[in-house]
Amino acid sequence: MESSRAPGRRVRRFPLRPLMYTALACVAIAGVTAGGTVYVKAQAHSGGGTVSSAPMPSFSSSPAATTEEAAAVTEPVVDFDERLSDAMKAVRVTGDEKVSAAVLDLESGDSTVYGDGAFDTASIVKVDILAALLLRHQEAGTQLGAREKAYATTMIENSDNTSASALWDLIGKASGLDAANKKFGLTGTQGGEGALWGLTQTTAADQLTLLQQVFGDDSELSETSRSYLQGLMGRIEADQQWGVSAAADGSGWALKNGWLPRSTTGLWDVNSIGRVTVDGHRYLVAVLSKGSSTQAKGISLVEAAAKAAVSVFTGEDASASASANATSAAAR
């Protein structure tokens, strides 16, 4: 489930100065051609690289050669996939549990995903349902009615299922959700059959794309629609303020959680998506999990994974966060 992409390298080139030409020539002069061209091979001390046999200008009484590109220094590029894979090693996954996490730094635009495969959405799909409804009204040039607003509020803030079912029907169920998601850029999400909106299938990468529609500027949703959805996600009722919010400092979060015990296995789906703020920096985080034996263990897994994901950019110790979450789970 882990990414294994090799770290990239960035090459920066700069000119050798005249004194450097002289130093290189003194180290090892391999020969002089008939035309007077000097060849050198020497170790360069500006980055561990080598200067291979290559022609250099003849030395004469004229001023030394000026700026010419003659060496390269490599700079490492941060591999966030590798960082996240390393951070997730501190997250304890037991038994049948599986977890996938994705995070995006809203300031730099850098993002990374850990794990793959599809997961049941459970109640996090309620954000997608409302986004699809808002998009439908935008395209029709209309606004949410009073009943729709009431449904939207209880669906997001209280995770009310009756409200979700009502709005699921209004958007056209799975076909309406899938049509909206195509415009949002989601490629791995498929609406649940019939009335089973909670069994919509999705990926952490797709949830990150959805969050960009809600919290990013480059969105199919208008600024008014985005602000409306963000506001609801920032007023989640007290007993549901867990999940990705564990990675935030203080109250800097907006989220939606989902939890569902599967009748076929007795195991829990536990998910969390949202925006968190750490030291003034904003991150979008999506964590999906399944296979936990209890809801409490699923929450602990999701919170540890959220902290590990954000640590990729903040540099915090993911191992310490995982230990803290294990203690929290034991207390539940």
UniProtKB/TrEMBL annotation:
<keyword id="KW-0472">Membrane</keyword>
<dbReference type="InterPro" id="IPR045155">
    <property type="entry name" value="Beta-lactam_cat"/>
</dbReference>
<dbReference type="Pfam" id="PF13354">
    <property type="entry name" value="Beta-lactamase2"/>
</dbReference>
<protein>
    <submittedName>
        <fullName>Serine hydrolase</fullName>
    </submittedName>
</protein>
<feature type="transmembrane region" description="Helical">
    <location>
        <begin position="21"/>
        <end position="40"/>
    </location>
</feature>
<dbReference type="InterPro" id="IPR012338">
    <property type="entry name" value="Beta-lactam/transpept-like"/>
</dbReference>
<keyword id="KW-1133">Transmembrane helix</keyword>
<feature type="domain" description="Beta-lactamase class A catalytic">
    <location>
        <begin position="150"/>
        <end position="288"/>
    </location>
</feature>
<keyword id="KW-0378">Hydrolase</keyword>
<dbReference type="InterPro" id="IPR000871">
    <property type="entry name" value="Beta-lactam_class-A"/>
</dbReference>
<dbReference type="GO" id="GO:0016787">
    <property type="term" value="F:hydrolase activity"/>
</dbReference>
<keyword id="KW-0812">Transmembrane</keyword>
